[in-house]
Every structure is written in structure tokens, then in C-alpha cells.
């Protein structure tokens, strides 16, 4: 599936004129994974429009085929998934390779935990470093058998069993863990309950409802949520329209906000309230972002974003907002580097266990671009002077797409060009990022001098 060579491809962004135009970003990664998974579990044919064709999601498509579903790309660009109903997956005869995708890895571990066979999982070196105990513990409590190398990380094998429902309080705010438990609960008789102290993205709950299941969500005192799911409900195929990914739109929005004179409209962006923290935060910093045409499609809130460049000011980002913008902190760090004053971002322990240690990777890159900051255990305090940082950094991306794109955004507006060591990682979530930026007038080019 991965067609690129093993040779890293350095990519450079340099400052040109302002960004201008109207664009659409690729489909939401979280919703795309789930549409393939639930499509494969529902009886009948599910048609998906706007699926993200990034490497992470293609891993899930391949895995669902290995588990016996028919997954096909149609001539009109939509995707079709034919499932046989909950509990009807087939034993894969080869290892499921999850590549760089923590979401595919954790959701599918939950999915196969109730299947009467053993599924073997592997991934790339980034995924092999990521913690899996957070999924393993609740799945073992339900009765699954998980065998891994020491430390509980990938590669590992999940032997499915007849599971028992659990009542589980998430120790970390993680939609992936919540979703793994709900997927394990699908074919488990009885009531599974997941309590989350801080609400996390609810695409799994929305999609279960979209496929005809009943999910009961109760708001708790103190801001948490309880999710109840009665196992062994039927799922019925339903068409899905995947909105544009707000996490991808965030790169464009920040680039337009920091590059003087820019005026960009991003249409069809998913604005689920548990995903829109970056836009709320940018606005608090003084960004000129207007949300237009708010509407609901296939159970998700969608709108268009009109972003114009403006002066940004440092703020303190409320730590409790972190789950609603967890993937957007790297690019927020870039925005903060152009702002006037201190931006304080804390409560971000989870950033240390993403595709890379995002606090460390960003800190190293910001330093090489001349940004003033203080690194904390759980975040960064960035101090800007309202001017473009020097730039000029050579950035190590550590197999992390969001580190690559964040620093390319920096390079579009910094004084000197910024080079990332390997641009191929952007294929994970945002195929065509450089071309799309190019269409708006930004200059991002592969380094051909190798
Ligand atoms: C995701 C949840 C988040 C996010 C990831 C996608 C999902 O991870 O960082 O990119 O689709 O459920 P956690 O739930 O582990 O925070």
C-alpha cells in the first residue's frame, strides 16, 4: 500500500505573498476510520462519500478486507462497504499492519476482542513505541486475551472470547480507548458503561446512532459523560458523508491567520463541538475567523470557515479544553510564535505519546526557528513579540505528519525558509497538502538536490 520509497524526502516552505482563495480539505480522519469499520459491521451496503484516502485510513480499509468485509472504491470516487452484521467477521490469515495509525490500532483491537479467533497486529516504528496498556486493560477486564512483547506494546496478538460487559472509567481522556471498549461491547450481551471525566470526540457514538443503534449518553456533574451501550444490537447500513477534517483545516487556518494580507475560505469543515477547540482558541487570540453556513450532515455539525490575517495575542488556553483540540496543539504552537505576549498551554501530557513526543519535537523545531519558549512536563509557554520568527530551521519530523505540516506552516510566514526532513509523512492524514497550499499561493516544494 505504501508506494513511496524508503528514502526520506525533505520538503521546504518559504515565505511568498499572502494566501488567497477557497478550498476544501480532505475528509475527517476519525470519521473515515469509523465509517469503514461500522460499514463492515452493518448488514447491507454502506456508501461513503468524502472518505479520507490518507495512509492511516487505507490501513483500516485493508484490515477490514482482511476481516472479511467487501471494501471497494467506486468509479465516482465514493467508497462502498458491504458487511454481514455484528459478529460476522472472518479470521485474517495475515498480520494486520496498522502502519502509523494509533486510531486504527486501538479501535481494531477492541473490534476483534469479541471475535472467536486470534488477530495479529503490527505497525511502524512510531506505532511500536506507543502505549497500548490503556486499551489492553479494559479489554482484558472484559475477557479478551492479549499477548505482546514486554511493555505491552505493538506487535501484539488479540485472542477474542465471549466477553463480559464492564463498567469502566477512563483513566485518560481518550476517544480511542472509549471507542475500543464500545466496539468490544457491540457483540457482548448486557450493558457496557464507559465514563469519561472529560468528554472526548463522540464520532463513535454518533455513528452507532446513524446505523440505527441506541446509545445513551448522560452528562455528569463536573463536565464528564457516561455512555451506556446494550450489546448485540443490529446495525443497519447507512450512507455517510464525511466532512472535511477540522484538524487539517487548522493548518490552513493558522497559515492564513499569520501571513499578512491572507484571505481564505475553507468549505465543508467538520465542526463537532468536541473537535472545534482550535478555532475557539484562535479566535480568543484575536484571529479573524468567521463560521458560515453551519449545518448538520449525517449526524455531524459542518460549516465553512472564512479566515483573514490578523494580529494575534498570547492567551492562557484552558487545560480542560485540551481534548477538543488535542491534535491541533503543534500548529497552535506555531500560531503562538507569531503572537504578541505569552501563550500558556498546559495539561498536555497526552501530546508526549502521540505519533511522536509532540512537545519535545515541537520544542526542538521552535528552538531552531528562533522562537522563545519554556518547555514544561505537560505543555509549552511560548513568548512571541508579534513579529515573524526568524525561521530557517531544519526540522526532524519523527514520522509525525502533524510536526511536518506545522513547521511547513511556520516556513510560509517566517523570515527564512523552513525545511522538514521528510515530507512523505503528510500522506498519513493530508494527501496533497503542499499542492493545496500552492493553490492558495503558498510555496512548499520537495528538495530535489539529493
Ligand atoms: C482519535 C482520537 C485522538 C486523536 C487521534 C484520533 C480518534 O486520540 O489524537 O488523532 O479518532 O478517536 P486519543 O483519543 O487517544 O486522544
Automatic annotation (TrEMBL):
Any Pfam family the entry gives: EPSP_synthase
GO cellular component: cytoplasm
EC number(s) on file: 2.5.1.19
InterPro entries given in the database record: Enolpyruvate_Tfrase_dom, Enolpyruvate_Tfrase_sf, EPSP_synthase, EPSP_synthase_CS, RNA3'P_cycl/enolpyr_Trfase_a/b
Catalytic reaction list: 3-phosphoshikimate + phosphoenolpyruvate = 5-O-(1-carboxyvinyl)-3-phosphoshikimate + phosphate
BP GO terms, sorted: amino acid biosynthetic process; aromatic amino acid family biosynthetic process; chorismate biosynthetic process
Domain of life of the source: Bacteria
Pathway info: Metabolic intermediate biosynthesis; chorismate biosynthesis; chorismate from D-erythrose 4-phosphate and phosphoenolpyruvate: step 6/7
Annotated Enolpyruvate transferase domain residues: 16-435
Main localization, broad class: cytoplasm
Binding positions (3-phosphoshikimate): 29-30, 34, 174, 176, 327, 354
Functional description taken from the UniProt entry: Catalyzes the transfer of the enolpyruvyl moiety of phosphoenolpyruvate (PEP) to the 5-hydroxyl of shikimate-3-phosphate (S3P) to produce enolpyruvyl shikimate-3-phosphate and inorganic phosphate.
NCBIfam families the record matches: aroA
Family: Belongs to the EPSP synthase family.
Stored HAMAP family: EPSP_synth (MF_00210)
Stated name of the protein: 3-phosphoshikimate 1-carboxyvinyltransferase
Native source species: Sneathiella chungangensis
Amino acid at each position: 500500500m505504501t508506494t513511496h520509497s524508503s528514502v526520506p524526502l525533505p520538503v521546504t516552505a518559504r515565505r511568498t505573498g499572502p494566501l488567497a482563495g477557497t478550498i476544501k480539505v480532505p475528509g475527517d480522519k476519525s470519521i473515515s476510520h469509523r465509517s469503514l469499520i461500522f460499514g463492515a459491521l452493518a448488514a447491507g451496503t454502506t456508501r461513503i462519500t468524502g472518505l479520507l484516502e490518507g495512509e492511516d485510513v487505507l490501513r483500516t480499509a485493508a484490515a477490514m478486507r482482511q476481516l472479511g468485509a467487501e471494501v471497494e472504491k467506486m468509479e465516482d470516487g465514493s467508497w462502498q462497504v458491504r458487511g454481514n452484521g455484528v459478529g460476522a467477521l472472518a479470521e485474517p490469515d495475515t498480520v494486520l499492519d496498522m502502519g502509523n495509525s494509533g486510531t486504527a490500532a486501538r479501535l481494531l483491537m477492541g473490534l476483534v476482542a469479541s471475535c472467536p479467533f486470534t488477530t495479529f497486529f503490527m505497525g511502524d516504528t512510531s506505532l511500536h513505541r506507543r502505549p497500548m496498556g490503556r486499551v489492553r486493560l479494559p479489554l482484558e477486564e472484559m475477557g479478551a486475551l492479549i499477548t505482546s512483547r514486554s511493555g505491552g506494546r505493538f506487535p501484539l496478538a488479540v485472542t477474542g472470547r465471549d466477553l463480559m460487559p464492564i463498567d469502566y472509567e477512563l483513566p485518560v481522556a481518550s476517544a480511542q480507548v472509549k471507542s475500543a471498549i464500545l466496539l468490544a461491547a457491540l457483540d457482548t450481551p448486557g450493558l457496557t458503561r464507559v465514563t469519561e471525566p472529560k468528554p472526548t470526540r463522540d464520532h463513535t457514538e454518533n455513528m452507532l446512532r446513524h446505523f440505527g443503534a441506541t446509545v445513551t449518553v448522560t452528562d455528569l456533574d463536573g463536565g464528564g459523560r457516561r455512555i451506556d451501550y446494550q450489546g448485540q444490537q443490529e446495525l443497519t447500513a447507512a450512507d455517510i458523508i464525511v466532512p472535511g477534517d477540522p484538524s487539517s483545516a487548522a493548518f490552513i487556518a493558522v497559515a492564513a491567520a499569520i501571513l499578512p494580507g491572507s484571505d481564505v475560505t475553507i468549505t465543508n469543515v467538520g465542526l463537532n463541538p468536541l473537535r472545534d477547540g482550535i478555532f475557539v482558541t484562535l479566535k480568543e487570540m484575536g484571529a479573524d475567523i468567521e463560521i458560515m453556513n453551519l449545518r448538520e450532515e449525517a449526524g455531524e455539525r459542518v460549516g465553512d470557515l472564512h479566515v483573514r490575517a490578523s494580529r494575534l495575542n498570547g492567551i492562557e488556553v484552558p487545560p480542560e479544553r485540551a481534548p477538543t483540540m488535542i491534535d491541533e496543539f503543534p500548529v497552535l504552537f506555531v500560531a503562538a510564535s507569531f503572537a504578541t505576549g505569552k501563550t500558556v498551554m498546559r495539561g498536555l501530557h497526552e501530546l508526549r505519546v502521540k505519533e511522536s513526543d509532540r512537545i519535545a519535537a515541537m520544542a526542538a523545531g521552535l528552538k531552531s526557528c528562533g522562537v522563545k519558549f519554556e518547555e514544561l512536563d505537560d505543555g509549552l509557554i511560548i513568548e512571541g513579540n508579534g513579529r515573524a520568527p526568524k525561521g530557517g530551521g531544519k526540522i526532524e519530523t519523527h514520522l509525525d505528519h502533524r510536526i511536518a505540516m506545522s513547521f511547513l506552516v511556520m516556513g510560509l510566514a517566517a523570515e527564512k525558509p523552513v525545511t522538514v526532513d521528510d515530507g512523505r509523512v503528510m500522506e498519513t492524514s493530508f494527501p496533497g497538502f503542499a499542492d493545496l497550499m500552492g493553490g492558495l499561493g503558498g510555496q512548499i516544494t520537495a528538495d530535489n538536490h539529493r
